[in-house]
Amino acid sequence: MPPFWKKSDSSLLAPGSMESEDSHVSSATVPSRKYAKYPPEVVSVDIIGYVKDSNNVRYSRDIGRSSKIGRFYVYQFGDTFCFNREGEFVGMTDNTCAVILEPSSEPTSCVYRTLEDNERVSALVPATNDEKCLPGQDHFMKFWSFGGILEDAHLDGYGWVYFEKSECVGQEMLPHGTGLARVNINEFGGICAYRVPGLLFNADEPRFGIFSSLDEGGHYYLWGHHGTDILLARVPHTGVQDRDAYEFWNGGDWVSDWHYAAPVMDHMQHGAIYKSRLFGPGQGTNYIFIGVNSWADSCVMMGVAAQREGPFEFTNLFEAQGIDQKEGYKYCIYPHPWAFKEEEGELMVTWSESWPGGVVAAKVKFEMSEGPAGAYH
């Protein structure tokens, strides 16, 4: 598929600029390599296609957040409208997880390893029997996870996932709070989760771990919404199930009471924060956010910061486009830095179309420039 956006070759040099013979003198004496230029300049955006099922079953689904657990990369999806191999609708599952079999060669191809008897996809975070038997046809529990799976630091093939629990009654959705589940993936890519009893954070508390999450330095770092603000928590690997072990960033230090937490960003609806060397050393860009704001404008946003805690500096990269569902805003925008060569200025980004669409994947190419060698190791 041809790129829907590409920078003109004539714009790569500023008007009237010429490369002098002396421009290579420093590179001959100081080792250098290329990094993406900062502030970022997007050269092209190539639509790859949908994140698809390797068995050619067409699912309508959203989110499309990827994570690594064990030796596998996986995609997590939200509401998944399920069909059997004959194309018949067999039901909807509110949270699903598919394994990517060939991440280096087919990063948009994945498969569900766990199906019910009628080929409906099984939920990653399951409902209890009581939750499945709520009175009324339009009365049910919903479990969504946007923050990704965190690998267990000590046990291969295991991890944790934070999820938001909500009760749907007719057209109304009543939040219950944020829960935690233990995730396990086997050698064949079969993945399941077991809920930790109770909820870590109540409905009126921030949804830590739902917006984004990161494993670094013996802690899990957890971003979550509280109104339009996004707050940051952390917890030691060994204390993830202990509510009292969580600490919260207050703008200058870590405190034990979330009420004193300070926003690290605001008005961002979905996205992921990850550690990166895309822009090289010395730029204050160690942490990158790729996502979408809360204004429903379909813009792919990039934020960069020197530290996890921010402050983040934001740039509007481009407007996401649909494939089959061109109308409606695009949401659930996520980066997948494992898919392409970051050292060559490449990044895969996905976004969700409006129903009955799917998750669209694109290859983004950034303008490169020279920088000191050695940052990639």
Question: How would you explain this protein's 3D organization?
Answer:
There is one protein chain. Strands 11, 12, 13, 14, 15 and 16 form a six-stranded antiparallel β-sheet that branches. Strands 17, 18, 19, 20, 21 and 22 form a six-stranded antiparallel β-sheet that branches. A five-stranded antiparallel β-sheet has the order 1-3-29-28-27, with no helix packed on it. It is 2% helix and 46% strand. It is globular. The protein has helices at 25-29, 129-132; strands at residues 5-6, 32-36, 42-50, 52-53, 63-69, 72-77, 80-83, 89-93, 96-100, 109-110, 139-144, 149-151, 158-169, 172-185, 191-195, 201-202, 212-216, 219-226, 229-236, 247-249, 254-255, 265-266, 268-275, 287-293, 299-305, 313-319, 331-336, 346-352, 359-366, 368-372. The chain has two helices and 30 strands. 39% of the residues are buried. It is an all-beta fold.
Most strands sheet: 6 strands, antiparallel
Overall average pLDDT:
91
The number of strands is: 30
| SS content category | mainly beta
Percent of residues in helices comes to under 10%
Number of continuous helical runs = 2
Radius of gyration: 21 Å
Query: Uncertain segments of ≥5 residues (pLDDT<50)?
Result: 9-28
Shape: globular
Q: Distance between the terminal alpha carbons, to the nearest Å?
A: 33 Å
* Strand portion: over 45%
